[in-house]
Fold this sequence. Notes:
By secondary structure, this protein is mainly α. The chain has helices spanning 2-28, 40-51. It has one domain.
Amino acid sequence: xxxxxxxxxxxxxxxxxxxxxxxxxxxxxxxxxxxxxxxxxxxxxxxxxxxxxxxxxxxxxxxxx
Length: 65
């Protein structure tokens, strides 16, 4: 984002994204859930894994590697 908008534009864009997330959380009185379908990075990752023949599974919260 910084390469396209410059340093000041990147900060503004990130702040705007956070503001939209915070406003929605306050408006709907719900906690932030990054696994919702509106997450473009997760959607892209799911599509790429499907093309390669894989499927994404949720990680165990208590798993230690």
